[in-house]
């Protein structure tokens, strides 16, 4: 009986160690399917009226996105700007792209950039069409944070 109790205790200990190892490895891992340019290229419509166009040649155009502080006054304001993007990931964030904007007009701030992070890749689930993907700019916080969804192409 004592041998059975020891065997159960050893098995329980091994189970706990395996569970901890799996939990730690999942927490620090990258998505099973890496983000590609195909996942982000297209037009993204924000729920507050902004629009982001991400093109295959590495350009991006943001229109009427509110709450940006990279304005001449430094006060939060709407931003319309052109820029360039690259696939990038901050270690503690979802995958996404880094967009570096140059604002429009003579008084525009020379540099403004942010990470556009995606939640979901559209590569899993039943549809696989990207309809479950949403995104946001990392720098936008609180009530002003705009959530984007890619528009359908067709």
How would you describe this structure to a colleague?
This protein is α+β, with helices and mostly antiparallel strands and 154 residues long. It is 19% helix and 35% strand. The protein has 2 helices and 8 strands, in the order ααββββββββ. The chain has helices at 2-27, 37-40; strands at 42-46, 51-54, 59-68, 77-88, 96-103, 112-119, 134-137, 148-150. It has an 8-stranded antiparallel beta sheet. Strand 5 (96-103) and strand 6 form a beta hairpin. It is elongated and about 75 Å long. The model is unreliable at 26-31 (pLDDT under 50).
Strand content: 35-45%
User: What would you call the shape?
Assistant: elongated
pLDDT under 50 segments (min length 5)? 26-31
Order of helices and strands: HHEEEEEEEE
Portion of residues in helices? 10-25%
How confident is the prediction overall: mean pLDDT? 76
- Cα-to-Cα separation, first versus last residue: 69 Å
Total strand count, please?
Answer: 8
Strand order of the largest sheet: 7-6-5-4-3-2-1-8
- SS-based class: alpha+beta
Largest sheet: 8 strands, antiparallel
Number of distinct helices: 2
Radius of gyration: 22 Å
Quick recap:
With 154 residues, the chain is an alpha+beta fold. The chain is 19% helix and 35% strand.
Key structural traits:
154 residues; alpha+beta; 8-stranded antiparallel sheet; 19% helix; 35% strand
Topology record:
Elements: H1 2-27, H2 37-40, E1 42-46, E2 51-54, E3 59-68, E4 77-88, E5 96-103, E6 112-119, E7 134-137, E8 148-150
Antiparallel strand pairs: 1-2, 1-8, 2-3, 3-4, 4-5, 5-6, 6-7
């Amino acid at each position: 009986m004592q041998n059975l109790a020891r065997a159960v205790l050893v098995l329980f200990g091994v189970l706990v160690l395996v569970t901890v190892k799996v939990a730690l490895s999942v927490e620090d891992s990258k998505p099973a399917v890496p983000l590609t340019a195909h996942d982000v290229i297209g037009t993204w419509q924000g729920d507050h009226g902004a629009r982001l166009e991400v093109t295959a040649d590495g350009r991006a155009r943001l229109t009427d996105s509110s709450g940006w502080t990279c304005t001449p006054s430094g006060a939060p304001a709407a931003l319309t700007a052109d820029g360039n993007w690259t696939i990038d990931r901050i270690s503690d964030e979802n995958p996404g792209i880094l967009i570096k904007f140059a604002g429009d007009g003579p008084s525009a701030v020379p540099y403004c950039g942010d990470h556009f992070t995606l939640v979901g890749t559209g590569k899993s689930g039943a549809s696989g069409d990207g309809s479950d993907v949403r995104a946001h700019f990392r720098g936008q916080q609180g009530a002003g944070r705009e959530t984007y969804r890619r528009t359908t192409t067709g």
